[in-house]
Amino acid sequence: MAPSPLTASPHLQAHLKALHSQSSVQESGLDWASLPKQCTDAFDDIMRDKFIALDQDKCELIYHVLRSINAKTVVEAGTSFGVSTIYLALAVAQNVARDSQSQAQQGRVIATEKEPSKASIARENWERAGDEIQGVIDLRVGDLRETLEKDLGTVDFLLLDIWTPLALPAVKLVKPYLRPGAVIMADNTLKADVGYEDLLDYLDAPDSGFRRVTLPYTGGLDMIIYQ
Ligand SMILES: C[S@@+](CC[C@H](N)C(=O)[O-])C[C@H]1O[C@@H](n2cnc3c(N)ncnc32)[C@H](O)[C@@H]1O
Q1: How far is CA 129 from CA 11, 70, 106, 132, 135, in A?
Q2: Strand 210-215 vs strand 137-141: parallel, antiparallel, or unpaired?
Q3: If you measure from the C-alpha of residue 118 to the centroid of ligand 1, how many angstroms do you get, rounded to a whole number?
Q4: CA of residue 113 to ligand 1 center, whole Å
Q5: Distance between CA 92 and CA 97 in Å, rounded?
Q6: Are strands 137-141 and 73-77 parallel, antiparallel or unpaired?
Q7: Which of 33-37, 134-138, 141-145 has the lowest mean pLDDT?
Q8: Which of 112, 170, 172, 202 is 20 to 30 A from residue 150's alpha carbon, by CA?
Q9: Ligand 1: which residue has its CA nearest to atom 19?
Q10: In this structure, which residue's CA is closest to atom 23 in ligand 1?
Q11: Contacts of 115 (CB under 8 A, 6+ apart)
């Protein structure tokens, strides 16, 4: 078997494995077809104690992309219990450390979560993750349509792991801060293609400044480049 794609301590690897496993068990008990519409109170009530973590293979790919593009400022739309955030923070911290001799800027992962109870569990999960990811996460609790309105800096990467009606608003808020060559990854673009229709139409407009490819991960994972 190939070694783990992550440069991470055995402790952190074990922590991530346990979090993904808890998320999978929880999600296997969910019947998506019978859930209320996204972004309604009824939907949020059901999701308040759920991880809905990004799949491990997708997290690992994203970690690789971040190391490859040397991302130092990352925005995450949808943090939940902070599983994917650990990968983002690990990559950013390692990118900063790699450039430390050239007085690089500080790294930052701007994480967003609407539910305060989920945000506090995310903080506990990051604390347990240990030193490798400390000092880079800027968690903004509240509706991302407000919390992403300011203080983003130049953004290298945006993760869209959010209820689909919020994906386009997130892209519009972050777009003015994207550097040329910045990457956006959007989860479940095949499985949730109807929900993503407005986002995909926006990205595919000839003058949008974006180009995308759908990667064959479960449910579809779009990799979008800002030209
Ligand atoms: C799919 S989950 C994110 C999973 C996370 N990326 C991970 O891998 O662990 C989406 C999260 O977005 C949060 N959310 C929903 N509406 C939001 C909003 N308007 N602003 C910020 N977060 C929101 C939900 O509470 C939920 O926890």
Answers
A1: 8, 22, 20, 7, 12
A2: unpaired
A3: 9
A4: 6
A5: 9
A6: unpaired
A7: 33-37
A8: 202
A9: 143
A10: 114
A11: 44, 48
> Alpha-carbon Rg of the chain, whole angstroms?
17
Band the pLDDT of 32: cuts 50, 70, 90: confident
| CA of residue 2 to ligand 1 center, whole Å | 32
Q: Which residues line ligand 1 (CB under 6 A)?
A: 47, 51-54, 78-81, 83-84, 112-115, 118, 143-144, 161-163, 166
Distance between Cα 50 and ligand 1 center (Å): 10
Domains delineated in the chain:
10-226 (3.40.50.150)
Task: Assess whether pLDDT exceeds 80 at residue 104.
Answer: no
Ligand 1: nearest atom to the Cα of 48: 25
Quick one: which of 224, 226, 219 has its CA closest to 58? 219
Ligand 1 centroid – CA 47 distance (Å): 9
Q: Pick the residue whose CA is nearest to atom 11 on ligand 1.
A: 78
d(CA 152, CA 34): 37
Reported confidence tier of residue 88, pLDDT bands at 50, 70, 90: very high
Which amino acid makes up residue 104? A
Ligand 1 atom closest to the Cα of residue 143 is 20
Rounded Cα distance, 149 and 170, in Å: 10
To which residue do tokens 């509240």 refer?
A: 142
C-beta separation of 112 from 151 below 8 A: no
DSSP conformational letter for 29:
T
